[in-house]
Design goal:
This protein is an alpha+beta fold. The chain has 6 helices and 8 strands, in the order E-E-H-H-H-E-E-E-H-E-H-E-E-H. Strand 5, helix 4 and strand 6 form a beta-alpha-beta unit. The structure holds coenzyme A (COA).
């Protein structure tokens, strides 16, 4: 599957993306936001393997696409994942290489994936969870029309419904 936005190309991950994908996750600023979760090359390899497996599922419910810039190649990933086939809720996540933060790419990729989930997959609700101190993730979620569903300790859960997304225009 390929989604084209004004500046970005969202495409399926390939095993050959491993070096670039590992480098994105291995940045110190990025590791801070993983909250102790594993950012090792081995974990990146596991995740990449999972994304490729998801792309081969049929029927398919999970999409984690590579974000590419024409001149830079892989700069991140963005996904919507329905947890079970036929389910109506999907989780959302986006990650970009440190040098590409704050340029509107997260918003551009996120809009394309959420649009796809609501209109092509027929999802009713999209949710995300992030650390309360992850201001960029919270701002991105808010710009995507998500509102806070609940707060728990240092985490914030957000959601947007299909009906609300339509009203976003
Ligand atoms: C979260 C992330 C994907 C956001 O992508 P991005 O391309 O940097 O975000 P955008 O440039 O599209 O900005 C979206 C909105 O967030 C705001 N924003 C971006 N970074 C911000 C920051 N550090 N603090 C406050 N607001 C911020 C932007 O101003 C914009 O809002 P605006 O249009 O009203 O000005 C990116 O920062 C990232 O990859 N972080 C590391 C991985 C991660 O934490 N992912 C989320 C895990 S839940």
């Amino acid at each position: 599957m390929i989604l084209q936005t004004p500046r970005l190309r969202l495409r399926e991950f390939l095993p050959s993306d491993l070096t670039a994908y590992s480098a994105i996750r291995d940045h110190p600023d990025f590791r801070l936001l993983l909250n102790g979760r594993d950012s090792s090359p081995e974990r990146s390899a596991e995740l990449l393997h999972q994304f490729v497996e998801w792309s081969l599922e049929s029927p398919r419910s999970r999409y984690q696409l590579a974000i590419e810039l024409p001149m830079d190649g892989l700069i991140g990933s963005c996904g919507v994942r329905i947890q079970c086939v036929g389910g109506s809720d999907a989780s959302f996540g986006c990650e970009l290489a440190r040098e590409h933060w704050g340029r509107g790419y997260g918003l551009e990729a996120g809009r394309a994936l959420i649009e796809f989930a609501f209109h092509e997959l027929g999802v009713d609700r999209i949710y995300a969870e992030t650390l309360a101190r992850n201001h960029a993730a919270l701002a991105l979620a808010s710009r995507l029309g998500m509102r806070v569903e609940k707060r728990h300790d240092d985490r914030v859960a957000l959601e947007v419904l299909a009906s609300e997304w339509k009203s976003e225009g």
